[in-house]
Amino acid sequence: MFVKRLILSYTKAVHRLNRTPNGGGSKNASDYEVPPACSFLTRRPYSLDAGNPHDDGQKPVTVSLYQMKKIIKSSSVGESVEGATCLQTFCPVCHTVPGATVTSGPEPAGARIYVNKTTGNFTCSSCQYLGRWDHIEKFFLPYNRSAKTVQELRKQRDAFLELKKEQTGPVHTLPGDSVALDVEGAKEVIRSLQLENIVPEALVNIRAHWSEGRKELSIPLVDVEERTIGYKTLHVGPDGEICERTVPEANASGLIYLRCPSSGPSTKVKDQQSQTNAILVLNVLDLLALGNVKQNATAVCLPHGLKNLPQQCLPGLERFQRLTMWFNYDTAGWDTARNYAKKLDERRCLFVRPTDQHPTPYKALLEGTIEPRTILAKAQPILHQSITTFRSLRQDVLSDLQNIDKVQGVKWKRYPTMNKLLKGHRKGELTVLTGPTGCGKTTFMSDYSLDLAQQGVSTLWGSFEIRNTRLAVTLLRQMVGRPLDEHLAEFEQWADAFERLPIYFMTFHGQQPIKLVMDAIEHAQYVHDIQHVIIDNLQFMMGVQDETKHLDRYWKQDAIIASFRTFATKRNCHVTLVIHPRKERDTDELTTSSIFGGAKASQEADNVLIIQDKRLTSVRGKKYLQVAKNRFSGDLGIMPLDFDKASLSYAQRKKKPDGTGDDGAPQTGQTEGSDGGIPADRTIRRALF
């Protein structure tokens, strides 16, 4: 018996020694053959794609702000300057060699890096490189470094700089056929574009260029070092409206600055106010309109409007102590302003409330009924308050009533019945989708999310049950409407179109700790301004662990649901959870009580959607989606799910006058008592209390 136990202990010890650091499997031989000078590059790949650094979206930095400040302070670089969103310090790579004597002369131009205090990502002002904190952490050499350490870091620095040169992206300079404008040229451009009430000095101050051949105005986007790294264009569209375009289309890290005219004679105090106060707007027309407003502030145009605010833009706003956000006066602009404020530090942000009395700057300039300075004077800070009154909520209530369509959320184009029941897809809500095994929950949810993503809703997919490749194939096929394996010549065209959609994927699969998943989701929401998070499904994410086998499974699921509920409310992001039901008889319909686990899932959810599949239990049975809970409007009802195998879609087909669908086939489930007895739209009105 003793010998048997000894052999068992020895076997376990050998097994532990052979494990890899990440939890299992055998190590590759290459893991042991990397020389010290190259281990830095092998362990963590670099990326010069500012918008998509390698695996940054799924593995957020875990080092604390205190630790980053401590490392910088203990190094030979010196102190760091803490701003509202970033730590500023001397770049230890671009302009210094490890071990070299630091001269006391003036700091080289563009020799600073900006380390984001939330994500840990840094932006180098010299080369606009975006990387993770652990890319550059080891270059902050302590004073008591050894000669061997210095020698290794010099080799790593050379490899680091060489890799950046190889991966440097394209430089987006102004079009070659455009010329800089003077005052007289600006007047001609204003007449050509029919920019009413715009002063020509505003176009000159933002260094606008004009292309006579293309009739297009170009305005440079500049970085924190005042270098042109992109541009915006204005031209008159076919319908006579002004069209705006940003180059590059995504992850532009530049801003447009316009100093507003000073109110009265210029003084040192007013100059200082214009350097520390900023008014943020979404488009060039609003920026130019502020060129008429006498305000001691600088107008700043964001690169991508309401789509997202790349973290590379934050260093350009560090010098401002007060930021007034003057966005579109609808609920979408209001929600975006609150999300942007969390990135920019809410303590320095003010908001122009979105009402009809507070139009955007250009619209206010055209109407002339209210002075823009009067609107700016009513801007209010939005801080977390423990107690509030109706007086504080009065403008928010008015905004919701004036923009009722926006309050209801984004409408589905593929599912008009869903618009009648749920009214729309709203931020800050929690939706639970359940249905029997194999009924098509993932297929429906991918089609459901694709519809929203095509309308600009940034989506983060967490597929713990199937691989991301298979999920992407399904999404692409649903977008195309037919199997691409039979039309491979069209793949590149559709793949390019799909790549432009704001859809992101988490690389998790199977069982994962909730803390790791929430860290990745919060990081992605901050970086990519995610508006819709999908978890498919909750049971796969929970898994089965030896260390948690003594915990109550219902308690564990309730804790996970509570985490997602808190995230949805705190970050104003819609979360959809796919949860399997408990095992019940096939002949019984599923209800909110059928959701696996305790009652917390149905209690915390704002919407409960149930896929009822009666095809296997009834000769004339049908599949349909039941809205079992609707906290927003209280409307309950069902929607038939007719599956199109070619497109893998449940999208509702439009009825023709003769009662047939788009393909000429009769529409099923349109009237009460038709095949299966399922109506196309059966709404049950219930009280909202």
TrEMBL record:
Keyword entries, A-Z: ATP-binding, Helicase, Heme, Hydrolase, Iron, Isomerase, Lipid-binding, Membrane, Metal-binding, Mitochondrion, Mitochondrion inner membrane, Mitochondrion nucleoid, Nucleotide-binding, Transit peptide
Molecular functions per Gene Ontology: 5'-3' DNA helicase activity; ATP binding; electron transfer activity; heme binding; hydrolase activity; lipid binding; metal ion binding; single-stranded DNA binding
Domain SF4 helicase: 404-657
A cellular-component GO term for this protein: mitochondrial inner membrane
Catalyzed reactions: ATP + H2O = ADP + phosphate + H(+)
Cellular compartment(s): Mitochondrion inner membrane; Mitochondrion matrix, Mitochondrion nucleoid
Region (Disordered): 652-682
CDD domains in alphabetical order: Twinkle_C (cd01122)
Hydrolase keyword on record: yes
EC number: 5.6.2.3
Domain named Cytochrome c: residues: 78-194
Membrane topology label: Peripheral membrane protein
Chief localization: mitochondrion
SUPFAM superfamilies: P-loop containing nucleoside triphosphate hydrolases
Protein name (record): DNA 5'-3' helicase
Organism: Anopheles atroparvus
Source species taxonomy: Eukaryota, Metazoa, Ecdysozoa, Arthropoda, Hexapoda
